[in-house]
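Quiz preparation item.
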């Protein structure tokens, strides 16, 4: 009886270059789709946070106006700071004014405000912000009863209100209307306040959102660039 011997042949083979390229391409596509979805979700989340804070600020400003008969005005217009350092420069004067006006923490960033006009408990409140919004030494104009840590930050020595992107909110109070003096020819344009500094008659409030490239553009200039300001969160 003869014994049969069977030889087995290995069917294992290596991937071809074409197959490797296909696998790498699929992995790259999946990674790109995942990253794109993550980026979109993060951007949407930041915009939602910004919109929520934006509406809170508007309500607090109306309370401030009812309490003091006017909206707060930034004391140091054009105070520029970079976010992050070495990148884009933002005007923080409005955000610093909003922080103090709506939290009661200091008042040196609000034009025309003193410890007497704010009704400080002891008349000796510090004019500079210190990050504290409770205590007898604070100015009694707290419009924001609850202020989460996520909507303000300290930049250098200045406290400011920030949006969901970590950038300062932009705020400009409208200029008070002026009446031409007696005998002035109104058609000659001699009124010194003929060029409005805001779009609204009260104040302009906005966040640049994810638009870093136009962080120095003002609200009135944005009227001529609707394709730019369409990405902003604004009150006009």
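Solution:
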């Amino acid at each position: 009886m003869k014994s049969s011997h069977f030889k087995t042949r290995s069917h294992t083979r290596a991937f071809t270059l074409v197959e490797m390229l296909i696998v790498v391409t699929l992995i790259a596509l999946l990674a790109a789709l995942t990253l794109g979805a993550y980026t979109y979700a993060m951007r949407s989340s930041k915009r939602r946070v910004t919109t929520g804070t934006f509406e809170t600020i508007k309500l607090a400003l109306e309370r401030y106006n009812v309490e003091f008969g006017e909206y707060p005005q930034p004391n140091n217009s054009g105070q520029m700071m970079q976010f992050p350092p070495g990148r884009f420069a933002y005007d923080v004067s409005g955000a610093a004014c909003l922080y103090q006006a709506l939290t009661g923490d200091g008042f040196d960033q609000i034009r025309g405000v003193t410890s007497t006009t704010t009704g400080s408990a002891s008349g000796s409140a510090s004019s500079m912000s210190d990050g504290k919004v409770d205590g007898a030494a604070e100015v009694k104009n707290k419009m924001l009863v609850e202020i989460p840590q996520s909507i303000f930050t300290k930049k250098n020595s200045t406290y400011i209100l920030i949006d969901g992107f970590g950038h300062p909110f932009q705020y400009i109070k409208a200029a008070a209307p002026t009446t031409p003096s007696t005998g002035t020819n109104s058609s000659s344009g001699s009124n010194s306040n003929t060029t409005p500094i805001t779009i609204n008659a009260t104040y302009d409030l906005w966040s640049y959102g994810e638009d870093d490239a136009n962080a120095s553009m003002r609200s009135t200039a944005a009227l001529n660039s609707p394709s730019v300001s369409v990405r902003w969160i604004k009150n006009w």
